[in-house]
Design the sequence.
């Protein structure tokens, strides 16, 4: 355990929502509400809770409204809290981000790229029910996130939900309502809460992968409010003409293609020509499978070879969220096309 407190950053989401005439809306005053919720815990659990401070955003949001600018703001706030005192000790030993569940996986993935090399825990959590709702999962999720954020061995961005700890850049929202609402379909759990105690499966963690000095990459996402990256899931009978309107648009610099099975597309020369033209113009196009489990391997079928010929980047078994946020991240930096392609194919934070 570290001695310094944990910084909880509240961004909004159901967890902090209150009833209004129009339905649930983000609420304020989260610190006193949290302390009230924790005061209801049994004394031994209260006593063992890590110390924390709260940074509450003035205008908390429903995460369905989040943009890359929100990811950037959060990463910068964590980077600021990462600083040390004049005596060289950390202001905060770890970070908990309270976030809406809808785009939580996007934020967690983006934070992982921006905070590459971090050697303290960043644990993102949310809830399916508001903090004060009867039987809410919010107090338990926040308590678990705090306990994981106090684990020195956790040195990456993770998601904590329903007692499970998942790699941030591998996580997806999996259920619209169930408390066990997040999954990491292609990577095992990083940890679990067992009898109320955090247990880390350290061999799966990133600490060895990124040992060394932190090297945050706080790129400027200001220009990406209107995302330069589009997401296209293939459908039977797709129209190359419609794809062309997106892929050849001047503002589009990257695309996620969600293709069939192990990495296949229709063998239509017009489609392959369009993809080749877009990637020839320097657009980063990456492919994952529409299957939630398993990687793409574009060389298996003749129907996948067209992707290789067109210069489409295989995204292995990455989540759509991890691909999109990685493309945004790479495009926001002064890199050459070759460097961007090479970095996309490299595992930066265990996302592939
Ligand atoms: N719409 C909410 C949000 O993402 C859902 C939630 O938090 O569960 O902010």
Sequence:
């Amino acid at each position: 355990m570290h001695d310094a407190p944990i910084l909880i950053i509240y961004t909004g989401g159901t967890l902090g929502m209150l009833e209004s005439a129009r339905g649930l809306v983000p609420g304020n005053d989260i610190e006193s509400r949290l302390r009230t919720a924790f005061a209801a815990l049994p004394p031994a659990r209260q006593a063992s809770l890590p110390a924390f401070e709260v940074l509450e955003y003035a205008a908390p949001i429903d995460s369905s409204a989040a943009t890359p600018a929100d990811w950037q703001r959060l990463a910068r706030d964590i980077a600021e809290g990462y600083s040390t005192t004049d005596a060289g000790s950390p202001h905060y030993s770890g970070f908990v981000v309270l976030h809406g569940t809808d785009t939580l996986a996007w934020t967690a993935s983006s934070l992982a790229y921006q905070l590459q090399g971090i050697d303290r825990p960043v644990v993102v959590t949310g809830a399916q029910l508001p903090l004060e709702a009867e039987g809410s999962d919010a107090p338990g999720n926040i308590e678990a996130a705090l306990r994981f954020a106090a684990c020195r061995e956790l040195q990456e961005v993770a998601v904590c939900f329903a007692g499970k700890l998942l790699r941030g850049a591998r996580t997806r929202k999996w259920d619209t309502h169930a408390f066990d609402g997040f999954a990491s379909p292609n990577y095992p759990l990083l940890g679990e809460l067992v009898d109320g105690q955090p247990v880390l499966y350290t061999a799966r963690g990133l600490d060895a992968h990124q040992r060394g000095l932190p090297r945050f990459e706080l790129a400027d996402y200001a220009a990406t409010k209107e995302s330069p990256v589009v997401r296209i899931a293939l459908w039977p009978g797709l129209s190359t003409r419609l794809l062309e309107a997106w892929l050849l648009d001047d503002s589009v610099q990257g695309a996620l293609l969600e293709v069939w099975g192990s990495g296949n597309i229709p063998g239509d020369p017009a489609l392959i020509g369009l993809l080749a033209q877009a990637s020839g113009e320097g657009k980063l196009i990456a492919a994952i499978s529409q299957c939630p489990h398993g990687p793409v391997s574009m060389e298996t079928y003749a129907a996948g070879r067209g992707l290789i010929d067109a210069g489409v980047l295989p995204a292995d078994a990455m989540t759509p969220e991890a691909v999109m946020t990685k493309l945004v991240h790479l495009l926001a930096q002064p890199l050459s096309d070759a460097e961007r392609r090479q970095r996309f194919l490299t595992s930066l934070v265990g996302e592939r």
